[in-house]
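Help needed: design a sequence for this.
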């Protein structure tokens, strides 16, 4: 097979892998609309932590979960859901909300968009029970 055809086939294949999921709606950011969904997602990631309650952000991207062991976060990353325990972290108020810096290279930081009325409430909930 001539090199020119091989290059065209490779470029077309890679482009279709990038474009087709987006056109099919598979790359849309998943919303966290239900506290029960957030609690179940957190319990799947950290079994046995006994989640107590979940507070959702208004934009549906992040949920703050409180457990008997302490607080945690559930957030959407593209079409997937990620959960982290809030252990060994720093919180910085960064308009329009909070920025949480984890001391872990696997998940270095997350930005949470919050309204002014929710900001103090979330900071209070992030302290251990």
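Sure. Designed sequence:
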């Amino acid at each position: 097979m001539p090199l020119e055809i091989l290059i065209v086939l490779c470029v077309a294949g890679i482009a279709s892998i990038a474009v087709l999921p987006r056109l099919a709606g598979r790359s849309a950011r998943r919303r966290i609309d239900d506290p029960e969904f957030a609690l179940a997602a957190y319990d799947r990631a950290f079994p046995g932590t006994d989640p107590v309650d979940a507070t959702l952000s208004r934009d549906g991207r992040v949920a703050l979960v409180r457990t008997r062991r302490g607080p945690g976060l559930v957030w959407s990353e593209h079409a997937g859901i990620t959960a982290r325990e809030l252990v060994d972290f720093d919180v910085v108020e960064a308009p329009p909300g909070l920025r949480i810096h984890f001391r872990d290279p696997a998940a270095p930081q997350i930005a949470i968009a919050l309204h002014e009325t929710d900001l103090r409430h979330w900071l209070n909930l992030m302290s251990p029970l």
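The chain has a mean pLDDT of 86.
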